[in-house]
Amino acid sequence: MICAAEPDVCEIMKKGFEEESGIAVNMVRLSSGETYAKVRAEARNPKTDVWWAGTGDPHLQAASENLTAEYKSPQFDELQDWAKKQAEASKFRTVGIYAGVLGWGYNTNVLAKKGLKTPECWADLTDTSLKGEVQIANPNSSGTAYNTLATLVQLLGEDKAFDYMRALNVNVSQYTKSGSAPIKAAARGETAIGVVFLHDAIAQAVEGFPIKIVAPCEGTGYEIGSMSIIRGAKNIENAKKFYDWALTAAAQNRMKDAKSYQIPSNKRAETPKEAPKFSDIKFINYDFMTYGTAEVRKRLLSRWDREIGAKAN
User: Fold this and answer.
1) How many Å apart are CA 103 and CA 205, to the nearest integer?
2) Burial label, 284 (beta-carbon count in 10 A; 0-12, 13-18, 19+)
3) Residue 55 phi/psi, 5° resolution?
4) Distance, CA of 259 to CA of 274 (rounded, Å)
5) What is the pLDDT of residues 121-144, one digit of tens each?
6) Across the chain, which distance is largest between two alpha carbons, in Å?
7) Does residue 109 share a domain with residue 80?
């Protein structure tokens, strides 16, 4: 199994399945972008059976390229509508396992010490006072950052989104490999702001770090964290057993024990009290199918490399 969630969550899911099934799991942790690249590179001789977690866009891209296997779990009817739609859109080559809101977290101590205003909107992140105070991941390796890229394109239009990212680049101190790394840096006081999914920022706040969350005022995107079985999986029957287990309420309830604060996809699973309330947030109508296709994803990433990555600080 490749797990694209936080290491503690990966370990809890691995151990939980092993305990309940008696099946040993050989697990590695990679980011979503890295996982997609590995699955694609190994398409003729898959080394992986299950890809669990990470943003849905690369899962959908893998599905569109026939890299993942069609499978409809007996647990399907227990899922939230957004998780079902993810499966139906991919012709059952992936399925939603949790949802997370895009935004950022900021270190209250750093902002206060430097006399900086709290950024409430996307536009605020480009203010000249925040030069060198923002971290965000690289969209080539991070599903979080690709979700950000796709969100901005849908919110502003493509050309204006790239104008925005050029302005933001002035304030970015580092494009990290992992999507959650920016908020960990903010928690340590190494940067003021980390652009992440809000559940990653909440996890740092729960740990006692001076982190507050923001869902941007203009509107924001969200992820449907997903799960896929790899086409040609060597251990297909065990892969299906894990897939079914991971969609149960009992399995998804384990995630909060690892301080994972997403919205679970099983309707009977318990949503952590710390999780962001969707009803309080302004969302864009995120087009998962369009921005999960190989053509659109490759085009946007190539443009980001040329216009943003090549000029990164």
Assistant:
1) 15
2) middle
3) -60, 150
4) 9
5) 999 999 999 999 999 999 999 999
6) 57
7) no
